[in-house]
Design goal:
With 262 residues, this protein is mainly alpha-helical. The protein has eleven helices and no strands. It has two domains: 9-15 and 51-175, no CATH class; 192-262, no CATH class. The structure holds zinc ion (2 copies). Residues 117, 121, 130, 134, 214 line the site of one zinc ion (ZN).
Length: 262
């Protein structure tokens, strides 16, 4: 199955390739969304709040560094899979096995993220590790990868863990999953409800409102892509369903609010 197999590169080539892909995605999607929100009819989630320019600049500078660390983990994972350095034998590559392990990896990553995120929100770790990311209380798309080094190590080491323990048929699973995570993570910080009807409650997919509420209220909505863990552990914001439905269904009204507030 050549279409599902990535080319063989050295570890450093994979690190550099992943950095090129992720940094290109970061700047192009951020640029697109930053322009799109000037004229969009989508709902602004924290209606009268804007992130200060100095914090936007801080987030961009930090993201350029953090993406190098993230690429290190993703590049390592791809290289480990390709070299066969895993504790289980890889499945035969096929469309079915590709889709299956992509879905498993998506659920596992959300589980990893939820619990790591809850731990770094405890008193013991919050100031030292995670406060940096929360300084952007009304996030913008540029805020997605603005994390401390330790924060990045804890959340992003998932990729190496997954490569070692999952019998992924091809390293393409890791690359596709990471690109999906990068895009949804950036949309999750956009400040405007880009989720679309696919995220309308009771959808299991997190809308943009989900992570935006996490930045606004701190102690809720800890997962990244799905609502499963927050619902199970009782940490979903009590107004999440209503606010998301309102943001998705009546963006014109929200836009009108915005115009009236300016
Ligand atoms: Zn947090
Ligand atoms: Zn965030």
């Amino acid at each position: 199955m050549n279409g599902l197999t990535l080319m063989n590169l050295t570890f450093f080539q994979w690190w550099l390739s992943c950095y090129t892909i992720l940094i290109s995605l970061y700047f192009s999607l951020s640029w697109f969304i930053s322009n799109d929100i000037k004229t969009t009819r989508l709902a602004k989630i924290q209606k009268d709040k804007e992130l200060k320019l100095e914090l936007v600049k801080r987030d961009i500078k930090q993201s350029v560094k953090s993406l190098l660390l993230i690429s290190f983990f993703v590049g390592s994972a791809i290289w480990l899979n390709q070299e066969g350095f895993t504790v289980v034998s890889a499945w035969e590559p096929s469309i079915l096995s590709f889709v299956l392990w992509l879905l498993v990896s998506m659920f596992l990553y959300d589980t990893w993220f939820y619990w790591v995120h809850r731990i770094i929100h405890t008193k013991r770790f919050y100031r030292r590790i995670h406060l940096w990311h929360h300084r952007s209380k009304s996030p913008v798309v540029w805020s997605n990868n603005s994390d401390t080094l330790l924060d990045g190590v804890l959340t992003q080491s998932y990729w190496v863990f997954a490569a070692l323990v999952l019998p992924m048929p091809t390293a393409l699973v890791i690359l596709v999953h990471k690109i999906y995570d990068q895009v949804t993570g950036m949309l999750g910080h956009a400040g405007y409800e880009y989720g679309g009807m696919l995220t309308l409650p009771p959808s299991p997919f997190a809308a943009v409102t989900f992570h935006d509420q996490h930045h606004e209220h701190f102690t809720c909505n800890y997962a990244t892509q799905f609502l499963f863990w927050d619902k199970l552990m009782g940490t979903l914001h009590p107004d999440y369903n209503d606010v998301t439905a309102r943001n998705l269904k009546s963006p014109q009204q929200s836009t009108q609010d915005k115009i009236e507030n300016t």
